[in-house]
Design goal:
Radius of gyration: 25 Å
Structural class: alpha+beta
C-alpha cells in the first residue's frame, strides 16, 4: 500500500472518529447556581422561586413569560375571551407533546387543575386558581371536583369559566400551580411521579437526575413542540445556599449563572466585570411577620413598636449596598392598576421620632422602661444577607427597646415548611414576589382563610370583608380604592413589618446568551444558550 493511501486512510479514520465523538464534544450545558434545595418538584406543592425555576423548565403552562418578562403563548397557541370576561377558550398546539411522545390534551389540564383544587392534595397555592368557577368551593369540600369550571371541548380545546372577570387571569396561568401533570404517570407512580425516570413533562427539558443537596440535571426534551429552537443540551441546577461558595465556583468558571449572591460582593464583582452583575428591581417585598396567635405579639402596640424601631434605611443602604429600597407598605410600587401603595402612618417620621413613639407604645403594653423585658426570637432562612439583617434588627430592638433578642436559622426548605405548616414563632423573615402584577397577590397573604401563606395567622373580619368586596368589584378605579383601604388596615395593625422592596441579584457569565432582566424574575432555560 502506498504512503499516500496510508495517509488517506489515516485521515478518513481520524475524520470518522471526530464525527463519532462530535456530539459529546459539542454538548452544550448550562450550569445554574440555584441558591437552595427544592422542597418538591410537584407543581401542586411548590411555593418558592428556586422550585419554580426548575419545574418551569420541566413543564409548560398554557401561557409563559418570555425572556423579557412578557406573557406569551405557551402550550396554548391562542385563546379567546367572552364579551363578559368570564369564559376563556384555549387552543392547544397540535405539536404539544409529553416527553414520552404522547400528545398533551385539554383533558390533561382538566385533570391537573382538579388535582390542585382537590382538598386531598392540600396544595398550598390552591388559591391561585380561585378565580375559576367553583374552585374555592371545591378546595374547601363544598363542591364536587366535576363542578370545577374547566372543560375539555375536544382533545386540543380547553374551556375555563371564571367566577367573575379577572384581569390578571392570563398571568395566573403561567404560575407553577397551573402547570399540567401527566395523568398516566401520576396514576402509575403516585407521589413518585416527580422522580427521575418517572417524571413525564411537557417542558423544554426532561429530568435526568436528581441528587438532593448536590445537583439536578435536565436534558433537552426532543418531543417539546419548540425543540428546534432550544439551544441547550442540558441544564444542571446546583442548590447552593452558601453564597460565598457559589461566587467562588462562578469565578472559577464552574457556574454560568448564580442567583442571590451576597450583596456585600456587588462592588467587588462590578469592579471585576460590571456586565456580569445584574441587579433588577423586582415586584417583591422583604418583610417580618409576627405570630399574632402568641402573646405579646397579639398586641398591636407591640407589633407597631417593633416595626417602628427598625431603621429600614440602614438595612437597605448598609447591608444591601443600595440594591434594596426601604419600604413602609406591603404592596410594592410600580403596579399600574394600583398606583402609590398605602403606607404606614409613621412612614414620614424621622427614625428618631419613630423610636420615641416605639418606646412609648411598648411601655403602654407593659414592656421596656419600668416594665418587664421583651423576649424575642427572630427566625430566618440560612443566608448571609438574611443573617446580617436579623443581626442588625436584633441590635436595633435591644438598643431602642431594651429587648432580649435571639436568632434561629434553618435551611430555606425547612424554614418555609415550618411557617407554612403553622409552626409557632415570634418573628420570622419572609419575602414575597409577585405571582402576577396585581396588589391582591400581596394583600391576600393576610386573609384569615389563607392558611398557607398567612404565616402570622392574622385575622381581621373588616380586612377580610374588604378583600371579598374587591373580588366582586368590576370597576378598576373602585376596586383600587377598596384594595387601598384594605392595605391601610394592614399597615395600621402591622401583622407584618414590611422592611424593603427587593431586587433580584444574578451573576450572568459573558458566554450566556439570551438573558433578559425583568421584574418578574422569569428566566426559562429554553431562551438561553452558552457560547
Amino acid at each position: 500500500m502506498s504512503l499516500m493511501k496510508l495517509n488517506l486512510r489515516a485521515a478518513l479514520l481520524l475524520g470518522s472518529l471526530m464525527i463519532g465523538a462530535s456530539p459529546a464534544l459539542a454538548e452544550t450545558v448550562l450550569h445554574r447556581g440555584n441558591s437552595g434545595e427544592p422542597q418538591t418538584l410537584d407543581q401542586a406543592q411548590t411555593s418558592i422561586d428556586i422550585e419554580a425555576f426548575i419545574v418551569k423548565d420541566l413543564y409548560e403552562g398554557l401561557t409563559i413569560y418570555d425572556a423579557n418578562g412578557k406573557i406569551v403563548p405557551g402550550t396554548a397557541e391562542s385563546w379567546k375571551v367572552s364579551d363578559d370576561g368570564t369564559v376563556y377558550t384555549f387552543k392547544l398546539r397540535d405539536k404539544a407533546n409529553w416527553s414520552d411522545g404522547t400528545p398533551v390534551t385539554a383533558e390533561d389540564f382538566v385533570f391537573s387543575m382538579r388535582r390542585v383544587e382537590d382538598p386531598k392534595t392540600a396544595a398550598g397555592y390552591a388559591n391561585i386558581l380561585y378565580p375559576i368557577k367553583n374552585a374555592e368551593k371545591v378546595n374547601k369540600g363544598n363542591a364536587k371536583l366535576e363542578e370545577l369550571g374547566v372543560k375539555a371541548i375536544d382533545a386540543k380545546t380547553l374551556e375555563i369559566t371564571l367566577e367573575r372577570p379577572t384581569p390578571f387571569f392570563i398571568e395566573l396561568l403561567s404560575h407553577q400551580t397551573a402547570l399540567p401533570i401527566n395523568k398516566a404517570s401520576f396514576e402509575k407512580n403516585g407521589a413518585d411521579f416527580v422522580k427521575p425516570g418517572k417524571l413525564v413533562g411537557n417542558g423544554a427539558f426532561k429530568l435526568l437526575e436528581h441528587v438532593p443537596n448536590d445537583h439536578l440535571t435536565a436534558a433537552k426534551n426532543e418531543n417539546y413542540w419548540d425543540a428546534a429552537n432550544v439551544k441547550l443540551d442540558k441544564v444542571i441546577f446546583y442548590p447552593l445556599e452558601d453564597q460565598a461558595a457559589a461566587v467562588r465556583r462562578y469565578e472559577a468558571g464552574e457556574l454560568d449563572l448564580v442567583y442571590n449572591f451576597s450583596s456585600d460582593q456587588i462592588e467587588r464583582m462590578r469592579a471585576a466585570n460590571a456586565k456580569q452583575v445584574h441587579v433588577t428591581p423586582a415586584m417583591a417585598t422583604y418583610y417580618y411577620p409576627f405570630d399574632t396567635r402568641t402573646a405579646p405579639f397579639d398586641d398591636v402596640r407591640v407589633r407597631r413598636a417593633l416595626s417602628m424601631a427598625v431603621d429600614r434605611d440602614f438595612l437597605a443602604k448598609d447591608i444591601y449596598n443600595g440594591t434594596k429600597l426601604p419600604v413602609y407598605s406591603l404592596v410594592p410600587p410600580g403596579m399600574e392598576n394600583y398606583g402609590e401603595p398605602s403606607k404606614a402612618d409613621f412612614a414620614d417620621l424621622s427614625q428618631l421620632d419613630r423610636d420615641d413613639q416605639a418606646v412609648k407604645l411598648l411601655k403602654e403594653a407593659g414592656f421596656g422602661e419600668g416594665g418587664k423585658p421583651l423576649n424575642i426570637e427572630i427566625r430566618y432562612n440560612t443566608n448571609p444577607n438574611h443573617e446580617r439583617v436579623a443581626t442588625a434588627v436584633a441590635d436595633m430592638w435591644k438598643k431602642t427597646l431594651g429587648a432580649n433578642v435571639t436568632l434561629m436559622n434553618l435551611d430555606i426548605s425547612s424554614h418555609y415548611a415550618y411557617l407554612q405548616e403553622g409552626g409557632k414563632f415570634n418573628v420570622a423573615r419572609a419575602g414575597w414576589t409577585a405571582d402576577y402584577a396585581d396588589p391582591e397577590n400581596f394583600l391576600n397573604l393576610n386573609v384569615s382563610s389563607n392558611k398557607t401563606f398567612n404565616y402570622g395567622h392574622y385575622s381581621n373580619p373588616e380586612f377580610d370583608a374588604l378583600m371579598k368586596k374587591s373580588y366582586e368589584e368590576r370597576n378598576p378605579a373602585e376596586r383600587s380604592k377598596i384594595l387601598h383601604a384594605a392595605e391601610a388596615l394592614i399597615m395600621r395593625d402591622q401583622p407584618i413589618a414590611p422592611l424593603m422592596n427587593d431586587a433580584n441579584l444574578w451573576l450572568v457569565a459573558d458566554k450566556v446568551k439570551g438573558w433578559g432582566d425583568n421584574p418578574n424574575n422569569e428566566h426559562l432555560s429554553k431562551y438561553l444558550s452558552v457560547e
